[in-house]
Amino acid sequence: MNISRACALGACALILLAGIGAAAQGAERSDLTLGDAVELALKNNPELLASRYELTAAQARSLQAGLRPNPELSLELENFAGSGEARGTDALETTLSLSQVIELGDKRGLRRSLAEADGDLIAIEQRARQLDVLAEVTRRFIDVAAAQERARFAAESTQLSQKTLDTITARVNAARAPLAEGSRARIGLTRAQIEERQTRSELQSARHALAAQWGKAEPGFVAAKADLFAFAPVQALAALLERIERNPDITRFASEARLRDAELRLAQAQSRPNLALSLGVRQIAASNDTALVAGFSMPLQVFDRNQGGIREAHARRAQSDAQLQAALTRARTTLFALYQEMTAARERTEALRSDALPQAQTALEQTQSGYERGRFSLLELLTAQQELLELRSAAIDAAADYHRLLAELERVTSEPLTTNDLEASLP
Q: Which end of the chain, N or C, is less packed with Cβ atoms under 10 Å?
């Protein structure tokens, strides 16, 4: 499956993409795009590789269902090893016959239709499984992108703490600040360094978790090429609700309904008896003559007319319709909730980046300048630094939440949601 097909399946949001690169298997790369990760997962994900055998098995069942019943060869020995004239083999009669079951009601064709419907259902489930893998790859990719941002901000925090320590050390050396302030600044630097090491460790874990999606123990890439804070326009909720029935989680019920219809037709056909025709040759030892024998048999439909099987097939068919309606209700409810949460995450990110963060940055710069002139205390300076760091962390979390929710929405609709991706997918 190529990248454009993967995006058509959904879970590729994907303004995170800074371009789709060709994924060369086993090649070491410095930057990994989401397209690279998707292609690697579709080719090498262990669960997808294992599930492909189900399609092969379904094709084998379809082949088996279309086969006719085998003919039966029989040999009968009569009138031997008895008494009187039947003593020994003097009166032996040997009959060699060939019989064949003739299926009535097109049972063979109905079995084949049932097996084909089952294969179609498995194919849809395979597509749903691919969507699950694509959504998981997207989530893991977002985790890496978010971890990269946290590691970058942690490094900047360490530099900021070092700058603060240098400023305070200069004031302490000039006897303009007590020694305790220098100790507190060194503690702050140590904490920042610990946090930086922690974020690097989390980044490594995120990279390994992403690589596991294509069955690799080592990442094989250095960084995820993504812009966590790039947001493209998303289609309106009403448009998404109209497309939800194309999700394989929903279409599988339509395919299951066809499967249940095939089961019902087969159950009804099985209420009709089959014929068994036979033709053979009989050898009569007493007269050394031969004769043909022929016959047929057919069960009498007195008690068993497959009433229970037909009733069960009707119930299964009605159940598939009820399950479809329940699944549609759940999907619409989930879609609405995800859309609202995604919108809130985007608004939260934009508010933090356009309003709160610039103000916090300005406040820190003013506090640093005022501290150097003795107008602000160390506590005020450290508080301003902490506020900036917390807002940066909140912005990363909000942006990551937005992209995760967008990926979940794409999983529900099975199609890209951003207008840019939609335009790119048009012929």
A: C
Q: Determine the 3-state secondary structure of 94 from DSSP.
A: strand
Q: What is the DSSP letter of 56?
A: H
Angle at which helices 248-269 and 107-173 cross, to 10° = 160
Q: What share of the chain is helix, strand, coil (3-state, %, to 5)?
A: 65, 10, 20
Cα distance between residue 366 and residue 424, in whole Å: 46
CATH fold match for the domains 3-68+103-271+306-425 and 71-102+273-305: no
Confidence of residue 196 (pLDDT cuts 50, 70, 90): very high
For the segment 302-357, what is each residue's pLDDT rounded down to a tens digit? 888 888 989 999 998 898 889 888 888 888 898 899 999 999 999 999 999 999 99
Residue with tokens 């995450």: 345
Q: Which two three-digit tokens encode residue 164?
A: 């603060």
Task: Tell the residue number behind the tokens 């969507």, with chain if given.
Answer: 131
Q: What is the domain partition of the chain in residue ranges?
A: 3-68+103-271+306-425, 71-102+273-305
How far is residue 249 from each of residues 125, 324, 411, measured CA to CA in Å? 8, 9, 10
Contact 212, 136 (CB under 8 A): no
d(CA 293, CA 74): 12
Residues in the chain: 427
Give Dmax over CA atoms of the chain in angstroms: 137
Give the per-residue pLDDT at 417.
60
Nearest to 339, CA basis, from 237, 258, 263, 413: 237
CATH superfamily of the domain spanning 3-68+103-271+306-425: Outer membrane efflux proteins (OEP) (1.20.1600.10)
Evaluated on CA atoms 313, 318, 323, 324, the torsion sign reads positive
**β-strands 275-284, 72-78: how paired?**
unpaired
Does residue 265 contact residue 286 with C-beta atoms inside 8 Å? no
Positive or negative torsion for Cα 207, 212, 217, 218:
negative
Domain 71-102+273-305 has CATH 1.10.3470: no
Output the pTM of the full model. Answer: 0.77
69-114 per-position pLDDT tens digit: 999 999 998 888 777 777 777 788 888 999 999 888 888 889 898 8
The Cα 239–Cα 340 span in angstroms is 15
